[in-house]
Amino acid sequence: MNIRWNIVLSVMALALLAWFYSLNQKEDDLSALIKRHDSPEYTGKNMQTTVFSPTGKKQYFAKSQSVEHYSHNGHTDFIMPEVYLFDIEQSSNESWKLSANKATLTKDHKLYLEGNVVAQSLSDKSHLQRIETENAVVNLKTQDIQSNYMVKINGQNFHSTGLKLTGNLQQQIASLKEQVNTYYEIKK
Fold this sequence. Notes:
Low-confidence stretches: none
CATH architecture: Sandwich
Largest sheet: 12 strands, antiparallel
Shape: rod-shaped
Number of helices: 1
Number of domains: 1
Number of strands: 12
CATH superfamily: Lipopolysaccharide (LPS) transport protein A like domain
CATH class: Mainly Beta
Order of helices and strands: HEEEEEEEEEEEE
CATH topology: lipopolysaccharide transport protein A fold
Helix content: 10-25%
Radius of gyration: 29 Å
Distance between the termini: 120 Å
Oligomer: single chain
């Protein structure tokens, strides 16, 4: 009977040691499950979206390899975005294609493009055909464009380079403020 009591007491001692050990274990870190303030609200791969004006006209169509939306500041970050702007008067006609390595869209509909920025006209009749720079800001509602970097502009019968671009894609207006070089092609 002495052996039985030793076995029962040993099992009870082991059970108490296991229980004590489990109480002292660090619990799973639940903070990893809680969304951090600076983490994106949602992320996506190969996303496409169409944005309409309050009157129901298409404003722009955007697609991107990667998208992250941050609700705390309202910014949306894009990797390899392509944005198609629509004619403001006729929402059925795409007028410009914007592309870059990265972009950030803010609450006020400003698109901050970074790295290999290209604005390409989708109309053969457009006076401005192509704008290239490293960084630019485009207001997606008004289609105003700005850049403080070196800009190359190709249009019908001209080519310009310079700094500090301001313009409007819809109205096909572009002004360079500094270090401007323009070459005109005269057709006979």
